[in-house]
Amino acid sequence: MEKPDYHFFVCCSYRVQGEPKGICHKKEAVGIIQYLEEELMERDLENTVISSTGCLNVCREGPVMIVYPQGHWYAGVDENAIDEILDALEEGRVAEQYLLT
Questions:
Q1: What is the pLDDT of residues 54-95, one digit of tens each?
Q2: Is residue 20 part of a domain?
Q3: Which domain holds residue 38?
Q4: Is the pTM for the entire model greater than 0.70?
Q5: Among candidates 48, 49, 61, 46, which has minimal Cα distance to 11?
Q6: Contact 79/35 with Cβ under 8 angstroms?
Q7: Concatenated DSSP letters for 29-93?
Q8: What is the mean pLDDT of residues 21-33?
Q9: Is residue 18 part of a domain?
Q10: CB distance 56 to 13 below 8 Å
Q11: Is the C-alpha dihedral spanning 29, 57, 83, 98 positive or negative?
């Protein structure tokens, strides 16, 4: 497998028992993953990986997404945020308004 250009981690609030609980899950993080997949295909950013994660322990900021290799943590992620984050990636910059600091 070729190393991906980007790896997106989206918090889906999964717990050890496998049950989703928490803010990211309640705020439709799973739907964010589907939207992210569609946007990546539309933008021809195909050398990417998306992973849903367990709780990232920043619930008050959810939904949360991490983008590697940059290591940027984004908070309050919704479809508009996805658009702006991907625009920023394509332009070689950071979507600072969503950065979790």
A1: 889 898 899 999 999 999 999 999 999 999 999 999 999 999
A2: yes
A3: 8-98
A4: yes
A5: 61
A6: yes
A7: HHHHHHHHHHHHHHTT--SEEEEEEE--S-GGG-S-EEEETTTEEE-S--HHHHHHHHHHHHTTS
A8: 85
A9: yes
A10: no
A11: positive
